[in-house]
Structure formats: C-alpha cells, structure tokens
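agent: user wants the full assembly modeled, not chains individually. Plan: 1) parse entity lines 2) check alphabet per entity 3) run joint structure prediction 4) return tokens. Steps 1-2 passed, two entities, 706 residues total. Proceeding.
--- entities ---
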Amino acid sequence: MNAPFHSDVIGLDRLPVGTRARVASVDWGSLGAGEANRLRQFGFDEGVTVELLHLGPFGRDPLAIRVGRMTVAIRRKHAGAVGVTPIEQ
Amino acid sequence: MTPLPLVAVAGNPNAGKSALFNALTGARQKVGNYPGVTVERHSGRLTLADGRPVEMVDLPGSYSLEPASPDEAVTRDVLLGRQQGERQPDALIVVLDASNLDNHLRFCLQLIELGLPTIVALNMVDLAKRDGLELDASVLERELGVPVIETVAVRKRGTSELSQALDDMLSAPFCGVHKPVKSDLIHLQRRAREISAAAVVSETPVRRWTHRLDAVLLHPVFGPLILAAIMFVMFQAVFAWSETPKGWIQGGVDWLAVQASMVLPAGLLRSLVVDGAIAGVGAVVTFLPQILILFFFILLLEGTGYMVRAAFLMDRLMHGVGLSGRAFIPLLSSFACAVPGIMATRTIDDPKDRLTTILVAPLMTCSARLPVYTLIIAAFIPNTRLAWGVGLQGVVMLGLYLSGIFGALLAALVLRRGVLKGSGGGFMMELPKYQWPPLKDVVIGILTRAQIFLKRAGTIILGTTIILWALASVPQAGPGQKQSDVSIAGKIGRGIETVVRPIGFNHDISMALLPAMAAREVAVSAIATVYSIDSPGEAGGASKLTQNLQHRWSLATALAFLAWFVFAPQCISTIAVTRRETNGWKWPLFMVTYLFALAYLAAGATYWISVAAGLGG
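--- prediction returned ---
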C-alpha cells in the first residue's frame, strides 16, 4: 500500500484520529474521474493540511477529514490514494 | 413584453444560498421544474429600490462548473445559457461562506471568468467572526474585481445593500464579453487560497461549536444511538402531534357534509357532492397534519446540517447492501413521499447507486400510505397497552414501516447482485457547519409542501373520486340489489377480484385498487365513496367507515391489505417521476413489475398464514 510513497509518508486511511498531516501526494490515477474531480473540488492538493476527525461507527468507515476550513466525508479506500506526512505536535 | 431581468444566485452547497434567496424574494416563490430533468427550479421576485421588478432564480449548489450530478449540470447549463427553458441570466449573485473562503472562492473565480455582471455576497460573516475569523471585504473586492457585499442572510443583514448593488449593476450598460472558462481546478484552487489568505485580517483559533457537536453526534457509540432516538421521536411525533388538528379537520369535513346535505335536494347531485367530493377528498385532507409534521422534521434535519451526519453514520451499513450513505437522505425523504425522494437521488454521483436507490425508494412507507394504515389499524387492531406509552396499534404501525425498510434493503441487495451488478460508487460529502435554520425558511418549505398536497387533493384525488363515484353510481341498483354489485365500477372490481381473491381481497378492495393507482390515499376515499353510495341518506358517512370495515372484512383480509400496501407501487406520480429520472420506460416497468409481484406474495403469505391461525372468520 505504501509503495508509491516515501518512507515518512502514509496513506490518509492510516492516520490516527485527531492527527494533523500535510498532503504529500495524491495518486489521482487510482481514482475514478468523478472521484478525483470531487476530491479536487474539496480542496485536496499537495501541501494542504488535513486532519482526521472522526471514523464511521461501523467498520471504521467512512472517514471525516478536515481539509482547509471544511470537513468532508470520504470512504477509506479513497483516502488510501492520498499520501500524507503527519505533523509533529 | 420584454422579460424581466433574470438574476441567478449561485454558489457552493452550504454557502447559505437558499437562505439569501429567501431573504431577497420573501415568500413569493415559485417551485417548478426544468424541462427534461427533474431538477427543481426555485424562482422568485425582487423589487429594486426604484420599483423595477427582477426575476431571481436559485441555482442548485455546485462546487465547480464541472458537473458531477444532474443538479450541477443544470447550474452549469443555465450559466452558459445552454439550459432548455431558461434564458441566460443578466446578472449573477455569487454567495460565499465567509468562513470557508479557500474553497468557495475557487467556484467564485470560475463564475467571474464567465464575464456576466457579478456581485459577490460574503455570507455568514457573523459565524466567521464567532469562529475568530476577521476578513477584509475590500481586499476581496480588489482581488476579484467585482463588488463584494457582507451579508448575514438568515438575519437579512446586507440584503438592502445587495439589492442596491444589483440596481446599480443592472442600470449600467453591460459591455462585458463572455469568455470561455479555461482555468483548471488546481490552478483556480491555488489562486483562491492566495486571495483568501490576503483577505484574512486576523484569525484566532477557537474550538468551534460544530466540532464539539460532532464529537458527540459522530461518536462511534452515541452517534448511532442518537440517530435512532431522533428517528423514534420523529415518527412518534407524526402520530402524537397530529391528533388534535386531525380532529379539527375531520369535524370541519363532517360539518360541511351535513350542510351540503341540507342545502342540496336528495338525488344525484347531493350524492355527487356529499358521497363523492366531500367524503372522498375529506378522508384524505385529514392527513395533512401528519404529512406536514413529517416534512417539518425532514426540513429541520436538513437545515441544521444533521442529515449529512446521518448519511455519514449510515454509509457503511448502506454500503453493505450496495447503496451509499448518500442514499439515506433520498430514502428518508421517501417516508414523506417517494417523488421528492426519487428526485433527491440526483445528488448520487454513481449511476448504478442512483438507479438502485430509485428502484427501492417506493418501499419506504410514504405519507400517502398513512391514511390507509391508520384506517385499517384503527378498525382492526385493538388499542391494547403493551407497556407504558407503547400500544399495540403503534407496534403494528412500526412493524409496517420496518417491513418496508427491510424490503428495501433486501431488494437493493438482490438488485446489486443481479440486474445492477457492478462496483458501487463512492461516498464523498461535505459535512457543513451546524446551524439553526431560520424559522422562516422552514415555514416556507412546509407551506410549499402543504400547497402541493392540497393541490393534489383538489385535482387528482377529487377527479379520481368523482370518476369512481360516477362509475359506482350507474346503473342504479334495483330493489334488493346492492349498488356496489350492480354498477360499472362493481363489474370492473369483479374482474380484478378474480386475480386478488386468492390473497384474501374482497369486492370492496378490488374496487378500490384501480383508483388507488392515482394515489395510494385514494384507497381510503374510494372505500368511503363505495360505502356512502351503498347506504345513501346517512350523513357523515365517512365517520362510519370504521364500523363498515369491521363488519365487512375479516382480520386476515385486513392484514393482507396492509401487507399489499407495504409493497404495491400504487402511485402514478412515482411511476412518472421514475420514467423522467431514468429517461425511458424500461426501469419504471421493471419497478412496477417487481413491486406488484412482491405485494402479491406478501399479501398472499399474510392472508394464508392468518387464515391458518384462525383469523379468517
């Protein structure tokens, strides 16, 4: 799963709840055109700060993520396409 | 006559667009449809300071001009002047959420690039301030090159300034050029972030209300429990709160029937007015309070931002049967009526997800079934108290709702394994800030629904009732004959009866099934009309309906009838909206077939089991 990322980069789906991180890269190719477009519209982009806020009650899916000033919900499998570097707090 | 100048209100979802639209146009709104698609068109009128009227149209919220749903496609097409049935707007009001500029400015930049005369409404500045965010509107104005007006739509702040700016803009000769939009999303997004950063004067981080609420409402344990509690309160309220107003309406209808009987001479005309129109329409109109209470809750849940949280909580479970959490909102709306529910599926991006949701939406117990359920339950189920505050009648009602829900989940599962096989789409939604929706917006929403319901009662239901009355009244029965046996409707009913006799349906039900295709609640008025005609001269025939039913139906038949209504696609409007939404007859025909088959099996099984249990007498 971590193959496309550098060692300190993890998939957004692996970020612990309540942790902030910076988006290192997005594997746009692994997403459908519509999904990729929606993620861009939500503001996912390299360098943007994100924070994992909540997990769905069943199967820890979907994920509620703060991007910039808004909160969005995406499924775990799509979050995996976003590579992030956790920010030390 | 030249058409009024058209001003479109556009912006991201959750920018407070509709609140601003309501603040500008007031209650004088028209809800229509764009031709060919079932996207609602909300329009209204604004009178400028100099008395000039302007037509305003509230475009569906959108993240960009690259549409991901039919809704967003309408927004794009109207703005580009390509939407059938709509002229290109003369001016544009772009609504921004002041506390989410990074994101909302991107669409705003794209809209400004269109070259239409544009005003930006920097909305919800009060909430931004509460969140510790201080903005400089003049910086925005300079960077964007268009007028920027600070507004708080829910408190009507800034609306007069906005209408003044609109006045100035429409008075000035427009010499802009329409430019093709060329910038890509990423580029626009980066530019949006620069402008946003420049416009921020100061920012003090505070723990926001929304975060505190989400910590509880999206909690892995408390979240689902609270959702269940809210659903319980909602359905409880639909019954508990409606008792009193229902009584008033019933009283009014009875009074009207008595008055009409006194004024009109005995004969065909009196029968038409009293037995046909008043008994038929009256039986349906008494359900107005329940329907409005249901819509009140749905509007409130949507307006506060909770509905999206419910979708978040439910997504994993819905995913299990091949639907997405997004389907939760259309399916919940379908408890009020499947027509807006099916229309609400247009927010679902994935075509197969969407089609599955459309096909199972009619299984949600819509409010038109309530009259049928309430009548039969009141007549046949004893009001035994099972525990404190829990009655047998309520439990049966809950059972009917649950049967519909389980039926829908099962149907979705089967559909996704069969005809609609394929990997599901995703679930991507914005979780907006919580807010208390302005009472006025909720009231406007409820009034619109009341208007639609009463219009239906006054047209479709009145019309069907009168046709049924006519068919049930001729030819006149001779002495010793029963009117409902002799009439044309009786003969049609007999034809249907041969098909439904095996599942326990009697002659009355057979006669009601066909007119109930117009709308489910017509079943009640149809049965009321049949009984009124059979026993002429009895004033207030509608109130005697219950005794008549107990007398003529066995418990097994009543239960089978309820089971039938859980599944049967008894509603022309739903079939029509499905045809429109799926662009053809294939899916509505499929839906009608599988639902009738389910209804027949469910009613049959109920009847046979009940008879075996000794309830057939």
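agent: reporting back. The radius of gyration of chain A is 12 Å. The domain at 10-86 of chain A is CATH 2.30.30.90 (SH3 type barrels.).
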